[in-house]
Amino acid sequence: MKKRGNDIGQDVVVLHQLDRGVFTPNISPFPLKLETYLRMANIPYQNDFKNPIGPKGKTPWITLNGVDYSDSQLCLEMLAKRFQKDFSSHLSAEEQAVARSLQIMAEEHFYWLIVLQRFVYTKGKTLFQIQTSLPSILRLMMPIIARKVKSQTQAQGMGRHTKEEAIEMGMKDLRAMSTFLGTKPYFMGEKPTEMDCSMFGILAQVVWSLPGSSFESHMNGEFLNLRSFCNRMKSKFWPDWDQCLSSPQA
Ligand SMILES: N[C@@H](CCC(=O)N[C@@H](CS)C(=O)NCC(=O)O)C(=O)O
Q: Domain Thioredoxin-like fold: where (predicted)?
């Protein structure tokens, strides 16, 4: 039985997502993005960790006043309208176009490097380090899941490249993000906007929840400003970060 939110109260969002991770509140970029947005917009919400997969077969999804909504971006845009929260209105049309391009690069291109790292290059083994509450049946099923995800990466295209080629593409994405961020506190300037939630969702995985990846060491070197950005977002919107992590012990 899905927790639809009827018992939660009017205008309180139920955020359905995977259980907490060990190093990031969620090991998927998209629930982390949406929960960060809910905090940024000060929208009341409650988490539901029991029904993470929504009507479109993906996580996250939300329920608001008994109605279900899927896809982090569609949820965010619906909530922005519903609660009249727009953090990008001060941006010019050109700046908004750049923000969207960066977000799509991060979520639709670089994202696949995270997937490859977790499910193909390490065959799902690191998942049990970063998410200890995964049921033990998943450990047994991991070879099957990893094969399924590998075929998704091939359908998308990134999985058809050699590891070296794919990592080089990921490095170019991170370089573009780092160059654009420069010395600004947030991607679009002095104030955080919606797209910072997306960038944080992705980059926090690279900083904290992608053990052993080729990108990890660069986050302390060439891409140090991306790490600082993550720390800034974490301090601003996740003062309770440590309480939102799960124990490293299974
Ligand atoms: N565009 C979607 C992407 C969501 C997504 O890809 N979620 C992944 C986890 S990172 C998922 O649920 N995968 C399950 C599957 O594909 O079976 C969003 O923004 O919510």
A: 29-122
